[in-house]
TrEMBL record:
Keywords: Aminotransferase, Membrane, Pyruvate, Transferase, Transmembrane, Transmembrane helix. The keyword Transmembrane applies. The chain crosses the membrane at residues 33-51, 63-88, 110-136, 148-172, 198-219, 262-280, 286-303, 324-346, 352-375, 439-457. It holds the Pfam family SCFA_trans. This is Serine--pyruvate aminotransferase. GO terms for cellular component: plasma membrane. GO terms for molecular function: transaminase activity. The lineage of its organism: Bacteria, Pseudomonadati, Pseudomonadota, Betaproteobacteria, Burkholderiales. The keyword Glycoprotein does not apply. InterPro entries: SCFA_transpt_AtoE (IPR006160).
Amino acid sequence: MNTRPSPTPAEPERRNIVTALVYMFERLMPDPFVLSIGLTFVVILLSVFLAPKSSFGNIVTTWYGGAFGILGFALQMILILVTGYAIADAPVVQRGLRALASRVQTPTKAALVIFPMVAVAAWLNWGLGLVVGALLAREIAKRVKVDFAWLVAGSYSAWSICNSGLSSSIALSQASHGNALNLVEKATGHVIPLSQTVFASFVFVPTITVVVLMTIIFIKMHPQEADITLIRETEAPAATDDPHARSAGSDSLASRLEQSMIGTLFLLALGIGYLAVQWSSKGFELDINTTILIFLLVGLALQRRPIAYADAIHRAARQTGSMLLQYPMYGGVMGIMSGTGLAAVIAKTFVAVASVSTLALWSYLSSLIITLLIPSAGGHWAVQGPFVLPAALSLHAPVARVAMGVAMAENVSNMLQPFWAVPVVAIAGIRIQRVMGYTAVTFVVSLFVYAVALWLIP
């Protein structure tokens, strides 16, 4: 139901802003896959006119090499998403979220629960954060008189810090030996450990700051009681059978194997054994594959039965279609830019306008724009990395800071780019138009916080 009798004087202005943002992204910008095709065309044109090695044969060859060379990384990113989803999908986690939501009585307490819980989940795994945020928002909205659009926007705002966390595709790829997108290793022969990216003070401090500030701001932004739009019954998913329930069917061997925990325990023993051997011999370290393995093991332990985990992954896979298409396209763009010399040409421009101390900020600012066209951090790095990294090496600027400038700008621009908001609002059962007016505030605040951190924090 909607308890709002009539618009307040400030309502038309807020609606105009939201309407303009929605029109820009939903009417003027096509599907990200179509955008990736257009971007490929633009890069080819730039290569023809600007790059030193722009023959037709070289362009198509480098495009092919890049498109298919990135497939391993694409699968890794998809696994990051689905293994995080499977954790959030586990019945014990779902019960925990409902129990947590039951303790919330006011909008203020809702914000104090949503922001830290979703931020921690997103920092651990961006797929986990998406699902936890949407489901927790729904559970709270069922129990508390709270503006639902405000609540969903808060969960999405808390999720925005994910590119500064353990599942950051840019940070993880640069920490992974031999990874297709480890451009730093390809150029220097060295990997960048997470201690220099995710756990660096210039990343960790603004990440916490954004969460704290936005919690306070969202508490202040909650509409007055007369202006609250409550969750409607029509916004809730239709009643269905329990998605976690798989009929045992007959007492067949196949059914018993599916329901047995033996398979789960076997995989847990293999995975834990591997981590123990690796960390005891080489010391504790994380890269993409070990991160995925940890998420896999946690999800298996929480889901318990092999068939339950398989079903959870099946549900998660519905969210991965766009990723399957986009990553090869952006890999092709990366191949063209590197193979034709276009990336080196753009890098020279950065060198001309930037300095050792300002390059990271230039990387950050340019990333803000590129994110609006390329909503995937991994795909984004495939396009921007080939020219910001050579600029960093030429200027002897801190490579980790330049790379994380790209990642932190992803956090910011995602608040205006509705690509990742779509699964959140779909799970929550709300239209995106009702959310973007709030996330625009997060955009402004986080834009300033991350820029200051890149500029001032060592």
